[in-house]
Amino acid sequence: MADIFISYSKPDRSQVQSLADDLVRRGFSVWWDTSLLAGNTFRQEIDRELRAASCVVVVWSRHSMASDWVISEAESARQAGKLVPVRTETLAPHLIPRPFTEFHTELLTAKDRIAAAVVRIQTVTPESGGASGLWDDGTQSADVIGEAPVFGTEFRDLPYAPILTVVSSGGFRMGSPPREPARLSNEGPQHFVRLPAPLAVGKYPVTFAEWDRYCDLTASTYRPPEGGFGRADRPVINVSWDDAHGYCDWLSATCGQRYRLLTEAEWEFCCRAGTTTRFAFGNQLSTEEANFNGSVHPVPGSANTFRARTTPVGLFQPNGFGLFDMHGNVCEWVQDSWHDDYLGAPEDGRAWLGPGARRVLRGGSWYDYPQHVRSARRAWATQSERAPNIGLRVCRELDPPAG
Fold this sequence. Notes:
Structural class: alpha/beta
Largest sheet: 5 strands, parallel
């Protein structure tokens, strides 16, 4: 039995063929009426495949709207909770027959988004962990959030999506004071920022396991190299700001929520976790607390290690918000464009955008000295740059998505 059943009208066969071929290239098995075997009873085989498929892609067009068979198959899929509706470019969404207008319908040419919708339907089934509030690996589903998100609640929207931690709204003083050791002028002037709403933030940097799953499901042509450091639960590296945005867009489409990079203000708020010291753990940081280059500026009583590579996420203690690896391991992309200081910076936590291709990196990495992994430390790279010390952390907005 196939993963995907495609319901369509024969005049649209050439367009449907392109979609079917794309889904097969992505590793799905597909059934449509070209798969009928000689001697089989036509309607019985169609009914059997329709029931067995985990997902039904219905292609709406001016032809299929007039087909009783397509409408019947679409209704069966709707009732089973496995309908993925798509439409040809010549069909306006409002022409789709009721009750199917209640569903968002992708264009037949939007193959990445169709594949993402298929993955979501296949993952969130009545048999999956979502019904009990737990996924198969024991992590909580988004069912635990409720209408009033509770600080510190951990969940994930899908089994292969990053684990998120709820961070409350609040205010803090962003930047470093003039006398902070190793301070740079781009860390000032200090200014008060208030974040107006709670946010779900990645508990860890995005891992290779999570990124590789993304590559598998999207047939991505770029799979970041790990540089001999290892994959699995180590943070993904060699990803650009553009790559990071592509991943967030895919999560948004697949999970039906708004995923994005943190803004620079959100990132520092989350890193500080209520502290005003150089680091979330005080004014000194040891290599027993984070992964950075400890071979210079040694901390008394510390091993002052330089590991020269990433470490698995979650190896060190979390900060006060329950977030891991905010100092070191990998530099993390944020939304903001680079500005040379904070003069004119927003005070409400939103991204500060501007012209040019330079984007902000925060947190420092395994390669950096301790002064480079301070809470206030800022750096930049061009948005297309990939490097073995650059990764990302995602966040997810908690208010319901529009539309």
